[in-house]
Amino acid sequence: MITPAVNKGVPGEVDASTGGNLLTIEEVAERLRVSTQTVREIIRGRRITVIKLSAQTTRIRELDLKQFIKNNTIPCHKY
Predict the structure, then answer these.
(1) Could you give the CA distance from residue 79 to residue 70 in angstroms, rounded to a whole number?
(2) pTM of the model
(3) What is the mean pLDDT of residues 54-72?
């Protein structure tokens, strides 16, 4: 059994070693300002990497969320 390292800076938060804190689908939705359904569609489309802790429990590393944002950012054109 793999035991996640507890982030000593914030009680109750988990540090996924190199990927930062583990976020719930609800937390990702809040950060992206979208619905949880949209986040689930992104996950189903395999557009973001997730960690399945159980059939009912999914987590997303902060690093993977940042990478998703970077990969889906469209630069503005200068006028």
Answers:
(1) 23
(2) 0.73
(3) 97
